[in-house]
Amino acid sequence: MTKQIITISRAFGSGGHTIGQEVAKRLGIPFYDKELVDEVAKQSGFHADFIKEAGEYAPVSSSFLFSIAVSPNPLSTMHTMSMADQLFVYQTNVIRNLAEKGPCVIVGRCADYILREREDALHVFIHADMAYRAERIVRLYGETKQTPDKRLAEKDNKRKVYYKHYTNRNWGDAQNYHLCLNSGLIGIDKCTDIIVDVARMYE
User: Fold this and answer.
1) Are 155 and 12 within 8 A, CB to CB?
2) 52 and 68 in contact (C-beta within 8 Å)?
3) CB under 8 Å, gap of 24 or more: what pairs does 74-78 form?
4) What sign results for the dihedral spanned by CA atoms 68, 21, 198, 118?
5) Cα–Cα–Cα angle for 130, 198, 169, nearest 5°?
6) Helix, strand, or coil here: 202?
7) Checking CA distances to 76, which of 12, 45, 52, 150 falls within 20 to 30 Å?
């Protein structure tokens, strides 16, 4: 079975977005990360900032994020759900629809779980050690009041909690993916090469 759909799950700072983008470019297929957020925002009425934060991380308590998430059009069919659960339903539908449209690369948002029954999907997890990721986020995103280690731990923990809540699986467990690659050890370019090579094995 051809591996046409590639999902990229990643530890914060490991380069998963960059790898996914390059894989899509090399294979000549659509890439969905921010684009997925935009599509969910269009369908749900939720603000893109809310989707970026609540659509992949553990539920937040920020009253600002929840206030901007409110759609002007009430979601009558899901009025008993929390906004986080409503968002997961929208994201699930968007991810499934994108996969149905044809080959693509999808980053994050439990796509590996949502598309777990598709035989044409290749699921990848990108990780790296703390030192590599800390250097990378400072270089790319700059310094903040939080230490790099604390930023990484907070983001990773939120993703773990979110993933466990909606999938009942452990985020980052090798058994959930076809490939687990250490970008700090083998590099961004080599990770890209490996994913592209594996995808093409099934052509």
Assistant:
1) yes
2) no
3) 75/44, 75/45
4) positive
5) 50
6) coil
7) 52
The encoded tokens of residue 123 equal 């699921």
The Cα–Cα gap between 130 and 140 comes to 15
Q: What single DSSP character describes residue 31?
A: E
* Model pLDDT for residues 14-73, shown as the tens digit of each residue: 999 999 999 999 999 999 988 888 888 888 788 777 777 665 665 544 433 334 344 444
Q: Is-contact 89 78, C-beta < 8 A? A: yes
Summarize pLDDT for 66-124 with one digit per residue, the tens: 343 444 443 444 556 677 788 888 889 999 999 999 999 999 999 999 999 999 999 99
Q: Among candidates 22, 174, 15, 189, which has minimal Cα distance to 105?
A: 22
> Which residue carries 């600002």 as its tokens?
64
CB-based contact 178:124 (threshold 8 Å): yes
Express the helix, strand and coil content of the chain in percent, nearest 5 each.
55, 10, 30
User: 3-state class of 180 per DSSP?
Assistant: strand
Largest interatomic CA distance in the chain: 49
Q: How many other CB atoms sit within 10 Å of the CB of residue 45? A: 16
130-134 contacts: CB < 8 A, separation 24 or more?
Answer: 131/184, 132/13, 132/14, 132/183, 132/184, 133/11, 133/12, 133/13, 133/14, 133/184, 134/13
